[in-house]
Amino acid sequence: MREDEARRALDRANALGDRVRGGGRWLALYCAVFGVGTLSVVLTTGMASHGPLRTAVMAVFGLMVLVLVVWAATRPVSPRRFGWLHTAMILGWAVLYSVALLVGRNFFPGEPAWWVPMAVATALPPWALTVYTLRTAGRQR
Amino acid sequence: MRHPRSRLDETIHSPVRFSVMAALAAADQAEFRFVRDAVEVSDSALSKQVSVLENAGYVKVGKFAVGRRTRTSLSLTSEGRAAFQAHVRALREIAEGTGAAAPDDA
Questions:
Q1: Is residue A141 in some structural domain?
Q2: Does B81 map to a domain?
């Protein structure tokens, strides 16, 4: 194999890698939507003064998660390290979500100074993965 | 010192198989149809080359149901990923001095 043939093979591999990584960009949208959903549900859970609104928002959030899971399972490309990244994101979200609800319901019911920052905090893990995905899976040369 | 040509993997060296390996190296898993379109080959040509890679232990083929359809997923085994990285290292050494960038494996 000559030098120019090796160079062409490497260029081809780079181009294919870019195309496949681009196919994994769906993860950015998945995480962005999940972040908006969790922000909404934490805010409503903490601030809503009556049960039916909370129940409705929780139901919509549950349905949204179900749709996201099915949609993710049918994507043609699983980004590199998807399993690890997704698990880390969900674990981070679960910890923040649990703290927000357990502490907030007991000590800060209806208190915006607690619920607004905690709602944003629960959205940070998925939004961080959105940024990471756009910087890596969506990278184009 | 041996020339890097001697370290090229004969199984990966074929243009279509090299392309399949390069595509799969950039993902954890990809559908057969996606790889076919990315590599720009026919179903039968891809099937044939994937069989060679599967028999070499470089590619894992999976089947999963989506509704009533069965889809085929392709992924690199850890052995396949290591073999592709070694192959790319040899290519890079051959191309050294020409300014070619090595493909990302992440």
A1: no
A2: yes
